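Quick one:
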Amino acid sequence: MLKALADYGRLMRAGTALVRHDVILPGEYQTRLPLPARMAGRVLRLFGGRATGRPGERLATALEKLGPAYIKLGQFLATRPDVFGAETAQDLSRLKDKLDPFSMDAVHRILASEFGEEQAESLFAGLGEPVAAASLAQVHRLETSDGPKAVKILRPGVEAMIYHELRAIRRAARTVERASVESRRLEPVKFTETVATSMEKELDFRLEAGGADQMRAISEQEDWFRVPAVDWDRTAQRVLTMDWVEGIPLTRPEALDQPGLERVELANKITRGFLSHAIGHGVFHADMHEGNILILPDNEVGLVDFGLIGRIGLNERRFLAEILWGFIRRDYQRVAEVHFEAGYVPANQSVGEFAQALRSIGEPIHGKPAEDVYMGRILLQLMDYTRTFGMRLRPELVLLQKTMVQVEGVARSIDPKHDIWKAAEPIVKGWIAQNFGPSGAAKLAARQTREVTERLKRLPDVMDAFEDFLERDRVREAADTTPAGPPWWAWFGLAISLAAIAGLTISQFA
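Output:
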């Protein structure tokens, strides 16, 4: 009971902060709102203070006061100037890496608690003042005999703060799902749980170090991004140390003014690099906002901050590639079929009608310059169709969808004419050719053969279990002086089991 009251109190605090800063139905947009919304906005402003600054500035201030979970929301909004407006996105961009740092005394206490006082003094003797501070942690430069390092240190007390914020948000999701039948289609509880779990993982820098190391291994195979190496001796639960990356984050205007830098090429590289990682390897950096993307001295692209690593399975990668490829080729029928095969659309809906709906989205934007495509209108249309066709949210794809939106927003901030479909084409086409062509078919057959072999290995265990069952049944029947022999339903059960195994085996080669 006390926890529930505390959670609702935190939610009321969030709503009050937004009202106080005139973020909900702001006065600047009165002329664009319908009459009920205008009236509601006036009522809300009666309870607010004297709000100053632009709407985006007020929203940034409100989110910053509410804490790390809400700052993450602001970071997401800042990547979409085409949806929320360039001015609002610019106002929100300061949330990425420009918060106030915490003291060096707190830093030394954290290092001592993680490594021991004596070892901390030895390992971090050359630690400098903080160079960047974000919602969860801040970064210091460390001079060592092996070269400069970047030391990321978790904010004091942030674990408890995140725990309470996420608990309140989870409660809100449960309340919404119970109260609104319509909301259940969007799976608010599962969605919230996916986001919350990802955020909780960000609080353990050992997990981030593992993700960064894997991303570095992938980047060494492909030349899209540069990823610094992890210093494992100086890494712990609340401290992460990596090689120092000399570069300029995209949050700073001078990052795009480097000699020889081609904006079109850079935007394509970011989009293609992300898709290559996601589709080709099933692993991707899931927080690709401008503060985490650096332009290096040789105009290469560096990635930092690996707290969020997204992963998708082979089936999801195939569906994603086929959906993108279908839109690129304007094959809306195939895109619709893939949605049904993946279970994204209920089976009782019409494939043809869903293809028609997709055509109404794709055709109006085909061939148009990117700056003439209003993504806000498209997003509203997509939401309408999810309701029309009873589509349910896929929580396992939340990070992928969120990052795709981020990547497109970053690419368009570099090149306003960036066309994500054209940028995606060579990556998607190459992956489909590799996985659905002759070599892909051979790999698929080998994988299916292994699966069938594993099933056949389990067959003796099935037979042993069946024999044990028959023996126990025979003993029981003997005690009851019933004629020996297994009942008909036992043989029927064995037949069904064997048929299931045979069917699964045969289907792999069909």
